[in-house]
Amino acid sequence: MKSGLHDGVERVLFSKEEIEDRVRFLGKEISRDYEGKDLLLINILKGGVVFLANLMVSIDIHTSIDFMAISSYGPSTETTGAVKLIKDLEESIEGKDVLVVEDIIDTGLTLNYLMKNLKARQPASLKVCTLLDKAVRRLIDIPISYKGFDVPDVFVVGYGLDYDQKYRNLPYIGVLKQEVYLG
Ligand code: IMP
Ligand code: MG
């Protein structure tokens, strides 16, 4: 039998409805906090795209978006700590109010690198919004201003998050079966 998209998922952590509710709430909070300002949302490809798309339509102040890509996990589920800038922003962020929109913060190594890089470009403000926080795995402290959900030390997929470039199109966030990455 052909294996389906949902077969690799052990259990659903957050349903589509739960995520949508939470994202709408975050959008309202952000709209209130940045009222009267022009907000720039910086999204980290590719895991954060589904979150960004849903978050931005829940924000009712002027916002623009820009994208960055940095190397993260390959086929393995363990981070190396080595991060590389693959795609840079299109515009200068100097003097702008910047909110980095991330899918998940795990060890924090990726975002730590990114924040240093962005801070050096002298934005007016620089904050972080992450859908998921896997705090038990954190190696470097990252101040998080907006957070969707806490997650335990499990490998999650869906709603933009992948394993080996797959599962990003699951409409919910689920725990990946160990047999998928242990082979
Ligand atoms: P960090 O540098 O360890 O914080 O890694 C952050 C990046 O690793 C995220 O932006 C994801 O791309 C990826 N990542 C970490 N944990 C997971 C997970 O459970 N599922 C999918 N990707 C993950
Ligand atoms: Mg990512």
Give an account of the 3D structure:
The structure is a single chain. The strands form two sheets. The protein has a six-stranded mixed β-sheet, sandwiched between helices. It has a three-stranded antiparallel β-sheet with strand order 1-9-8. The protein has one domain (17-151): Rossmann fold (3-Layer(aba) Sandwich), CATH 3.40.50. The chain has four helices and nine strands. It has helices at residues 16-33, 49-56, 109-119, 178-182; strands at 9-14, 39-45, 63-70, 85-87, 97-105, 125-133, 146-150, 156-157, 173-176. With 183 residues, the chain is α/β, with parallel strands linked by helices. Helix 1 (16-33) crosses helix 2. 23% of the residues lie in helices and 29% in strands. Strand 5, helix 3 (109-119) and strand 6 form a beta-alpha-beta unit. Bound molecules: inosinic acid and magnesium ion. Magnesium ion (MG) is lined by residues 44, 47, 72, 103.
